[in-house]
Amino acid sequence: MSSERDAGKGALLALFLVTMIDMIGFGIIIPFLTYLVQDLAEADGVVRIGLWVGLLMTAYSAAQFLFSPFWGSLSDRIGRRPVLMIGLVGNTVFFTAFGFSTTLLFALSMRFLAGVFNGNIAVARAYIGDVSSPKQLATRMGLIGAAFGLGFTIGPFIGGEFSNPAERWNLFVGTVFDTYPYLLPCAIASALSAGSLVLAYYKLPESIDVEALKNNEDERPWGQRMFSMAANSASMLRTPSIGAMIWVSMLFIFGFTVMHSVFILYTEMAVGLGGLGFSEQDNGRIFAMIGLFGILTQAVLIGPLTRRYGTRRLIPISVLLTGIGLTLIPYTQSSMAWIQMLLVVSCIAIGNGVFQPSSSTYLTRIARDEGYDLGVVMGAQESLSAFARIFGPLSGGLVWELTVNGSYPWDYHTAFHLCGVLMVISAILTLRLPPLKQFDEAE
Questions:
Q1: pTM for this entry
Q2: How far is it, in rounded angstroms, from Cα 306 to Cα 441?
Q3: CA dist., res. 29 & res. 17, Å (int)
């Protein structure tokens, strides 16, 4: 039930920060996760490094997927504001707790709990819907998209630049940050979350009339509502055009997130073994470049490209461009690492930056053209995307462990070849996408 209230600048800033911190929390561990796992695995006597990297990457997305319906349902009962603030409290606690990890199981549990409390991004979107007029909605939802991009840029940068500070700055020698070398970036993320909590407390009003909403609440048990939602999502997958687009998105995200778990396993590998010998700082800068190029693509390129080529044509082009970049990652030569990596990262970031808005635009328009409930359609897409984000990193870590010590092509190249194969399948599926009705895409 929407409210007649409008949101002030403080409320929109708080929502922007909530979303940005979600992506910071996801991306902050990427530059140093492999090094953390190696340190803890040595103490625990574990040898499956790649598998544990995949598990830790997966735990966050799995928790978000499992608990998003809970937070959404709770926000309908007690209001959006308290649920968003609970999430920020959880972030503040569990980001720092992860930095104190001394065992792999503790790290896994803290990562899962951080994901649990970051499962409220759907609530932030609902808040935007509550307080926005139809004319404001697109612009304000775009604010959420910008927060995602900025968070994915800032998170890896912080994670890389502030890892192991005692090795770089004498100020931290002999301190708790020397004992726990990955605590500082986690503490910075917690501080950002705490600052957002204070801002939300003073500037984020409630967006719904909770009592009125309770009177109109769906009385069915939560389990029945979830089953009904799953059935509706399954029916969407069987539709020719919408189902094809959802599967295209799922395979794209699957291939993209395989890279999240194996990229640093490759870059930190010794040069003599075929890797690049990168440090945490190097990896953080690479992922920050991906995020920055992605922001520039969505801010500068997507409009002119859409007007010139149309949404439907951009989808397969962006999928293949991303696939080329992902496949070429392990062919980077250490003597020209930064130049070649810049080209590879450009392909990945531009491809992804074009695909995300293009796929969402196509799905929205085809749903409206064919008369489907947009909420059900987007819910089906998000469900499959969540599964891709869960199983992508896990699959990448598993494939890496099974092949890294083999001979070409079944070696450290294999996981990146898997990314390319998934992107090719996704591009082939775009052949099933019908053209959109004539529409002035310059509007």
A1: 0.80
A2: 7
A3: 19
Q: Which residue, chain included where needed, has tokens 């899962």?
A: 112
Written as six digits, the tokens of 5 are 């209230």
Pair 388, 253: CB distance under 8 Å:
yes
Residues with Cβ within 8 Å of 66's Cβ and at least 6 positions away in sequence, in order, are 116, 119
Contact 208, 79 (CB under 8 A): yes
Q: Which domains are assigned to the chain?
A: 1-207 (1.20.1250.20), 221-434 (1.20.1250.20)
In degrees, rounded to 5, the angle at the alpha carbon of residue 207 between the alpha carbons of residues 202 and 211 is 115
Closest CA to 287 of 21, 29, 20, 107: 29
DSSP annotation of 173 reads T
Neighbours of 255 (CB within 10 A): 28
Q: What average pLDDT does range 73-84 have in this prediction?
A: 84
Least confident segment among 244-253, 325-334, 367-376: 367-376
Whether the bond between 409 and the residue before it is cis, its omega within 30 degrees of 0, is yes
Cα separation, 139 vs 39, whole angstroms = 45
**Are the C-beta atoms of residues 430 and 319 closer than 8 Å to each other?**
yes
Distance CA 224, CA 244 (A): 27
Q: What is the rounded distance in angstroms from the CA atom of residue 207 to the CA atom of residue 282?
A: 42
Model confidence at 64: pLDDT above 50 = yes
> Which positions ≥6 away from 192 have C-beta within 8 Å?
17, 21, 24
State the distance between the two ends of the chain, measured CA to CA, in whole angstroms. Answer: 29
In whole angstroms, give the CA distance from residue 160 to residue 286: 9
The number of beta carbons lying within 10 Å of the beta carbon of residue 223 is 8
Q: Say if residues 77 and 427 touch (Cβ distance below 8 Å).
A: no
Instruction: Give residue 27's region: left, alpha or beta (phi > 0; psi -120 to 50).
Output: alpha
CA 41 from centroid of its chain's CA atoms: 26
Residue 208: other Cβ atoms inside 10 A: 20
Read off φ and ψ for residue 405, nearest 5 degrees: -95, 10
**81-124 pLDDT, tens per residue?**
898 899 889 989 999 999 999 999 999 999 999 888 876 677 87
HSE (CB half, 13 Å, CA atoms) of 422?
27
Q: Which two tokens stand for residue 373?
A: 């409930």
Specify burial of residue 301 (Cβ count, 10 A radius: 0-12, 13-18, 19+). middle
Type of residue numbered 235: S
Map residue 297 onto helix, strand or coil.
helix
